[in-house]
Amino acid sequence: MHSGSRPLRTRFAPSPTGDLHLGSAWTALASWALARASGGITILRVEDVDTPRVVPGSAARIATDLAWLGLEWDEGPDEGGTHAPYIQSARSEIYDDALRKLEAAGLTYLCDCSRAEIARVASAPHAGEEMVYPGTCRHSPPDRELKRAPAIRLRVPDHTRISFVDRLRGPNEQHVDVSVGDFVLRRGDGVYAYQLVVAVDDALMNVSDVVRGVDLLGSTARQILLMRMLGFGDRVPSYTHVPLVVAPGGERLAKRTQGATVRELRERGVQAEEVVGHLAHGLGLVKGRARDMTASDVAKALVPPEEWRKDAWPIPAHWQ
Ligand code: GLU
Fold first, then answer.
1. pTM of the complete model
2. Ligand 1 centroid, distance to 272 Cα (angstroms)
3. Which family does it belong to (predicted)?
4. Which residues are documented as binding site for Zn(2+)?
5. Which of 72, 78, 151, 256 ranks highest by number of CB atoms within 10 Å?
6. Residue among 186, 196, 252 at smallest CA distance from 219
């Protein structure tokens, strides 16, 4: 099914900030099945760099819920593997190295702007919560007295136009300098930015196919840009951005939405095969009428990502 010549490797990369949400369970199932369908490798990577948001114990709870769904991993925190460690908080030296490479190439600068300063000068807030950085610190003398612990930003070259083909959504193009601007690689508090760690890890772990939620579609160009700048241009994966899972009425699944987590359904007595079957059918991973399925049934009957569902999927009303 994979068109390239690389061995197929997919990853599921949860942030341990709470219990496994149905939306995440779906991306886990889809990326797992994509690898299993053609004898590829499945990777579990715990994305816990944003320590203030991490909920202690939730990585273990997520692992339990994934195992209950029948998803097991060839490489991961418990399984090990040639690209260990698979927990981002244990990979800071790897990110330090990547940042040093970019610094040495003159591609970074220190930024001591506050959020409020950026907001005042930024143009209209862009796509959702994102703000285009106006470049204030790009031209400031590097030896100036800093107002606060500085963030490190990427100097995005003018006319940076990144194109890629999403397997479900088709061709995409982003002018990164215009629509994002010089984005943060490391925050003032020392936390590495999601864009950097994901780009580095997907490249170093040799991930061939990224399957994740459509809310991250707008991050893909930044990650491809970083991979190219770091010399991993030949390792850019193919991307499939799957739709969001929503409440039966179409609203966003909030933490308090009943039936929004795998754990809650299990505790209510719903069987794993029912959860897997509904997710697989609802989201078009398999054809035919809804029926209970195991994860390996899904892998055997998987249709190509080009044919998966594109619109948001409301969870069944009886799970509420
Ligand atoms: N860790 C991210 C999240 O849970 C997902 C990262 C990705 O798939 O690129 O939102």
1. 0.94
2. 23
3. Belongs to the class-I aminoacyl-tRNA synthetase family. GluQ subfamily.
4. 111, 113, 133, 137
5. 151
6. 196
Per-residue pLDDT band for 161 (boundaries 50, 70, 90) equals very high
Say which residue the tokens 């569902």 belong to: 309
Do 247 and 174 share a structural domain? no
List residues forming the annotated binding site for ATP.
Answer: 255
Q: Is residue 231 part of a domain?
A: no
From the CA of 24, give the closest atom in ligand 1. Answer: 4
Q: Establish whether residue 212 lines the binding site of ligand 1, counting it when its CB lies within 6 angstroms of any ligand atom.
A: yes
Determine how many CB atoms are found less than 10 A away from the CB of residue 267: 9
C-alpha 280/C-alpha 285 separation (Å) is 5
CATH no. for residue 175?
3.40.50.620
Q: Is 14 in the pocket of ligand 1 (CB under 6 A)?
A: yes
> DSSP secondary-structure letter at 191?
P
Query: If you compute the radius of gyration of the chain from its CA atoms, what whole number of angstroms results?
Result: 20
- For 261, phi then psi, to 5°, come to -120, 155
Q: Which residues are marked as active site?
A: 255
In 60-71, which positions are buried (b, 16+ CB within 10 angstroms) versus exposed (e)?
ebbbebbebbbb
Rounded to whole angstroms, the Cα distance separating 225 from 204 reads 15
**Number of separate domains in the chain:** 2
Q: Which amino acid is at 179?
A: S
Residues 102 and 27 in one domain: no
Tens digit of each residue's pLDDT (9 = 90 or more) over 74-123 = 999 999 999 999 999 999 999 999 999 999 999 999 999 988 777 666 54
Is residue 146 left, alpha or beta, with left meaning phi > 0 and alpha meaning psi from -120 to 50?
beta
Query: Torsions phi, psi of 174, nearest 5?
Result: -135, 135
**Which pair of structure tokens corresponds to residue 16?**
């341990």
In this structure, the answer to whether residues 108 and 194 fall within a common structural domain is yes
Average pLDDT of the residues of the chain: 92
Q: Is residue 236 part of a domain?
A: no
- Tell me how far the alpha carbon of residue 227 lies from the centroid of ligand 1, in angstroms: 17
Q: Give me 282's structure tokens.
A: 């609802």
Closest CA to 208 of 232, 235, 228, 234: 235
Tokens found for residue 118 = 């950026």
